[in-house]
Amino acid sequence: xxxxxxxxxxxxxxxxxxxxxxxxxxxxxxxxxxxxxxxxxxxxxxxxxxxxxxxxxxxxxxxxxxxxxxxxxxxxxxxxxxxxxxxxxxxxxxxxxxxxxxxxxxxxxxxxxxxxxxxxxxxxxxxxxxxxxxxxxxxxxxxxxxxxxxxxxxxxxxxxxxxxxxxxxxxxxxxxxxxxxxxxxxxxxxxxxxxxxxxxxxxxxxxxxxxxxxxxxxxxxxxxxxxxxxxxxxxxxxxxxxxxxxxxxxxxxxxxxxx
Length: 259
Prior knowledge:
Blueprint: H1 3-27, E1 37-43, E2 47-51, E3 62-65, E4 69-76, E5 83-85, E6 91-95, E7 100-103, E8 109-112, E9 114-119, E10 125-127, E11 143-148, E12 153-158, E13 165-169, E14 172-174, E15 182-185, E16 188-190, E17 199-201, E18 210-213, E19 215-217, H2 223-255
Antiparallel strand pairs: 1-4, 2-3, 5-19, 6-9, 6-18, 7-8, 8-16, 9-10, 11-12, 12-13, 14-17, 15-16
Helix pairs in contact: 1-2
């Protein structure tokens, strides 16, 4: 059996996953708050193929052959993106570490890096997609002015009020290993065994970031880096294709020996 065919095939599969990830990164280069993905690779199982030749009376070393490569993990890189000033009253960015807790579409808890907020039909602060922030912050449907302090305090003023009053506080949460968070779409994430459970805190305390109203966090995708990674993945894919072509030619030569 010609193992090089199968080994090269694993290389092509792994590089295809890398290209798919890069394509998703490039597609979301202008998505606010998007965190780029990165594929990590690992070599596959090794097996013994015999012993190396050695002088008489000396035991030769075992020879081992690998079985190819596989994509070990697809991780999110939570490096900070640049803050873009929008002056939008409901635009919110996190400067530093932390996530905002929201209620997902299925009712389960999810975590977001902020973005464009909205006020839902019941007067609660929510994400642009309508996912209510937790704990719930009721600002009312007749809100005229809304301000969010760096420490998370939310102050609102209705049309019949002269001064703004505090209606709630946005809390931030962090994780032991953010690369273990599972993306669920809409720039929302859920914890896993690797990430650990969420740790509550207040903005600006215990290493957590602060809130910036009127700003949006840009995607942390760097076009030049992604294009370089894309070319490297393409060249690696081509190299594996050439290995398959060479192995096929060797097999053809072997089949023609008796002709």
